[in-house]
Design brief:
- The protein contains three helices and two strands; from the N terminus they run H-H-E-E-H.
- The protein is α+β, with helices and mostly antiparallel strands and 106 residues long.
- It has a domain of 68 residues.
- Bound molecules: zinc ion (ZN).
Length: 106
């Protein structure tokens, strides 16, 4: 099964010391499970168009199942109510903006 590429780490940057700063996708083994593949397909089947593009008046085929509230920030991984269909561009834009958010402590 193909896996998502890990983001390249620049050699002069220290490795992340704590798990809370680790990015999602590549590190969460739940993405590799058959259960997630099924949930992902179910979401795209339920909602085949990108929901973010739809909000902006565009119609784009969704290819990614996204967590509305990032799992890293306390969103439920498996709850379908926390899933939305996105196209690749919208998912990348959303992930990029989430990268600047810090996970809540405790
Ligand atoms: Zn989109």
């Amino acid at each position: 099964m193909p896996s998502l590429p890990r983001s390249p780490r620049r050699p002069w940057q220290p490795a992340p010391a704590k798990r809370e700063y680790v990015q999602h996708a590549a590190r969460d083994s739940r993405y590799d499970t058959a259960r997630w593949q099924a949930a992902r397909k179910a979401q795209i089947a339920r909602c085949p168009c990108c929901e973010e593009c739809e909000r902006q008046g565009r119609v784009t085929a969704a290819t990614v199942t996204d967590h509305i509230i990032p799992v890293r920030l306390g969103g439920d991984f498996w709850d379908a109510r926390n899933h939305q269909s996105l196209c690749r561009a919208c998912h990348q834009a959303k992930s990029a903006s989430e990268r600047t958010q810090i996970a809540p402590r405790g």
